Amino acid sequence: MSKRTVRAAVFGVAVALLAAACSDADSTSAADSDADGETADQMEDMEDGEMAGMGMEDMNMGDLSATRADEVVGAALASGSFELMETRPEGYDATSGTAWVARHGAGTTVTVELSGLIPDVDYISHLHADTCAAGGGDHYQFEVGGAEVPPNEVHLAFTSDGDGNGFMTAENADIVGLEAVALVVHPVELIDNKIACVDFVEASEGAAAAMIDAGLDESHDESHDDGSGDVHDDTPAEHDSSEEDE
Ligand SMILES: [Cu+2]
User: For residues 211 and 26, what is the distance between their CA atoms, to the nearest angstrom?
Assistant: First the structure.
């Protein structure tokens, strides 16, 4: 596993805490008040999880080495172009890009690719449960009313490069429902200032519903299995981390 993956995962935990705090006005900020208590423990857990090769089951906020959504073989793919939102802060008039969501037998893979961001800034994207025209609505949740963090939601945390480009892929071990209709990108520092939104359009109409109906491929379904330790050789997360080993 690369150091890059660990850094991304640790950064992701911090962002998850921020995002949870920001989307719930009366909660105190765990990230601020308990920086070396709970947060540190969670970071440690994350690293342990990654070490054990269990990235898919953890609070996955993104993995640069994961297979991007539009390259997942056999997936039901949906995608769309980012549209600017009225709520965007200054400096984002040239932001554009694409987001993809792939539903497949090992769960869900989401990829965002953006340009025209502000260089070296932290961003977060979530799957949302309403259309861009409706402002994206709430975050998509597997268990509605449950935890506001992955794996119950799908978040992608990333930092723009020096040219204002952003890229991230996040995986989830379950298949998102048809309610996951949109993706929104926010600056972490201005979480309520939604920058841009994608309405997903299926590459092949009805494929997502069919994939949801088919459910997880049991041979990939490590999270729900009783630890047989049987790792299929085409599990995306495993496959990629070995390919990316430098
Ligand atoms: Cu969001």
Answer: 38
Between the CA of 187 and the centroid of ligand 1 the distance, in Å, is: 10
Amino acid, res. 67? T
Compute, in angstroms, the gap from residue 96 CA to the centroid of ligand 1: 17
Can you tell me the distance from the alpha carbon of 127 to that of 185, in angstroms, rounded to the nearest whole number? Answer: 9
The residue that leads in pLDDT, 50 or 137, is 137
pLDDT digits (tens, 9 = 90+) for 103-123: 999 999 999 999 999 999 999
Give the model confidence (pLDDT) of 84-108 as tens digits.
Answer: 999 999 999 999 999 999 999 999 9
Which residues are in the CB-under-5-Å shell of ion ligand 1? 126, 184
Task: Please tell me the distance from the alpha carbon of residue 218 to that of residue 128, in angstroms, as a whole number.
Answer: 27
pLDDT of residue 218: 81
Q: How far, in Å, from the CA of 123 to the mean position of ligand 1? A: 10
All domains of the chain, ordered by start, with CATH? 58-221 (2.60.40.200)
Cα–Cα distance, 169 to 224 (Å, whole number): 23
Residue-wise pLDDT for 120-133, tens only, equals 999 999 999 999 99
Q: What is the whole-number distance in angstroms between the Cα of residue 155 and the centre of ligand 1?
A: 8
The whole-model pTM stands at 0.71
Contact 52, 82 (CB under 8 A): no
- Listed in sequence order, the residues at least 6 apart from 85 whose beta carbon sits closer than 8 Å to its beta carbon are 132, 135, 184, 194, 195, 196, 197
If you measure from the C-alpha of residue 41 to the centroid of ligand 1, how many angstroms do you get, rounded to a whole number? 26
Residue 11 CB neighbour total at 10 angstroms: 18
